[in-house]
Amino acid sequence: MDPTRAFVKSVKRVVVKVGTSVVTRNDGRLALGRLGALCEQLKELIDKDYEVILVTSGAVGLGRQRLRYRRLVNSSFSDLQNPQGGFDGKACAAVGQSSLMALYDTMFSQLDVTSSQLLVNDVFFRDAAFRKQLSDTVSSLLDLRVIPIFNENDAISTRKAPCEDSAGIFWDNDSLAGLLAVELKADLLVLLSDVEGLYSGPPCHPKSKLIHTYVQEKHETEIRFGEKSRYGRGGMTAKVNAAVCAAFAGTPVIITSGFATDSIKRVLRGERIGTVFHKDAHLWTSIKEVSAHEMAVAARDSSRRLQALNSEERSKILLAIADALENNENIIRLENGADVADAEEIGYEKPLISPLTLTPEKISSLVKSVRMLADVEEPIGQILKRTELADKLVLEKISCPLGVLLVIFESRPDVLVQMAALAIRSGNGLLLKGGKEAKRSNTILHKVITSAIPDTVGDTLIGLVTSREDIPDLLKANLLVPRGNNKLVSQIKDGTKIPVLGHADGICHVYVDKSANMDMAKQIISDAKTDYPAACNAMETLLVHVDLSRNGGLHELVSELRRQGVQLYGGPRASSSLNIAETHSYHTKYSSLACTVEIVDDVFAAIDHIHQHGSAHTECIVAEDYEVAEAFLSQVDSAAVFHNASTRFCDGARFGFGTEVGISTSRIHARGPVGVEGLLTNRCP
């Protein structure tokens, strides 16, 4: 949960206001899909014991549509030749109110929810008795699990101009929603709009930024509003005014998109969507909005102070971070447990839950890797090349930090620790953008780590980016390291011009030759597949020499995998021989207890298969025939190729790096498991 949305945990009564731009399509007709999604969300809230009050616009638009149709069917040909004037707005409201309510009633009835209609006018609220009766009626309806649906009774309103006063008189449905939220003592008001929230300028403007937290002192004079709603009277100006009034009266408000099918549920899960208005927002100094550029500049400045320290001083920082991680293990696991619980509630599958989970063993391993990195030989200032150009003229090339690294990763909070430690050891600044699934975990890990960085360097050395909107601005760092699935890495590679270090897929192969020691082969394939099935270096395809399908060797291997609970899919030959389902693609990253099995004629067929279907990550041959093994090792074009060793061995920690940046399948700069040296460049001093 985002820290600025922690208040949603105590929400019981919520007012939801849906605007005309959400209720209607561009052609003025009702947006039935959006209305259906809204009703389904409200149904889910009621099932979770929330008290829901709905304020809806759209009656005038719906009435105008129906009257237009009625005029059309009753018009003669001559009438159609002479355009007629528009419709009276109050007549449209009178026709539309019953139609809109009938639509809501039909939709809610399908979901076994009862709704009720309450039409009000601004003058009613001058009467204290009315206000009390309104509160009593709504409380009774909510006790009966009935949704009260409010709308201004435009059909009989006598108001001709905007009107606001201290009595809380409203002018439109936005201000009505704000007034009701305060009057009915709601815990939260959600204003659904046709944009993601409040922007610093017109949403269509490329330089406009989404404002996640509205601070009146800061934003009141900075925001430029665009055009108002297409059909309603409000627009964003009206929403902001209503939100400010309600928030300062004690009811938090969030403006977010009504076009998304799950926006209300996401708001109540505490996700950082839309714009929040809160009376204490100005006190939330921790959420001070810093631009991506400012964050990168601060990281660069801190990295230069870090580089000024000697090797021992930087090692002490790493040891302090390791101690901080150990001392704060309980709170780290508590926050991580909340992330895992949310992911399970949403329905994430086990292969996605596993990398998200910080077990005691995983935290212990992270602490050990940070301490190991503290003992690594000083990487900065190493003489890479020394050339005497002339007498007493010597040219040296030495290693130096890259500058600022940007790491974008998914639901793997351990990446944050690994990259922070590597950045500090290599003298680099670091910007991190983690997946929303690990938001709590990333936040607490970032807080623990930066608290161990001395003031002489500054905690801005490591910045945690929380907004997706900042990513385009961040694609200007010195090196980008994506850690995630194929889609994420590919999108990042396509979207930036800066160097990208990483791999898109981990389609790793184990080839078992006819000369293999079968006991060793069973141990290797078991470790490669079952030790950590979601890892990028886990075996996804088992290739077996054809002779083993004839002498029982293949069945031994398959039986071992099945004993470990591995689901098997076959290529054309293996599926026929083993009577298993045929794989839909050899290029499949299962990330679970599943793998592909195929039979090949010899080592050269295995090599061809790997080159055609692999991802150039990690491959292994199990063989006792030295010549066959040498052919495999010399001809397979992957970042790591092993003989009689599990693919899981392709790891920075096992290579003695302490920890790793990632496993690169690139052929320039760094390849294979990348440690500190992959975060360095060189210069001539």
From TrEMBL:
Gene3D superfamilies in alphabetical order: Acetylglutamate kinase-like (3.40.1160.10), Aldehyde Dehydrogenase, Chain A, domain 1 (3.40.605.10), Aldehyde Dehydrogenase, Chain A, domain 2 (3.40.309.10)
Any coiled-coil regions, as ranges: none
Single GO term (MF): ATP binding
BP-aspect Gene Ontology terms: amino acid biosynthetic process
Documented EC number(s): 2.7.2.11, 1.2.1.41
Listed pathway(s): Amino-acid biosynthesis; L-proline biosynthesis; L-glutamate 5-semialdehyde from L-glutamate: step 2/2; Amino-acid biosynthesis; L-proline biosynthesis; L-glutamate 5-semialdehyde from L-glutamate: step 1/2
Any one GO CC term of the record: cytoplasm
Annotated keywords: Amino-acid biosynthesis, ATP-binding, Kinase, Multifunctional enzyme, NADP, Nucleotide-binding, Oxidoreductase, Proline biosynthesis, Transferase
Catalytic activity reported: L-glutamate 5-semialdehyde + phosphate + NADP(+) = L-glutamyl 5-phosphate + NADPH + H(+); L-glutamate + ATP = L-glutamyl 5-phosphate + ADP
Domain Aspartate/glutamate/uridylate kinase: 12-257
Alphabetical list of HAMAP family matching this protein: ProA, ProB
PANTHER family per record: DELTA-1-PYRROLINE-5-CARBOXYLATE SYNTHASE (PTHR11063:SF16), GLUTAMATE SEMIALDEHYDE DEHYDROGENASE (PTHR11063)
Family: In the N-terminal section; belongs to the glutamate 5-kinase family.
Stated role: P5CS plays a key role in proline biosynthesis, leading to osmoregulation in plants.
Protein name per its UniProtKB record: Delta-1-pyrroline-5-carboxylate synthase
Taxonomic source organism: Sphenostylis stenocarpa
Organism lineage string: Eukaryota, Viridiplantae, Streptophyta, Embryophyta, Tracheophyta
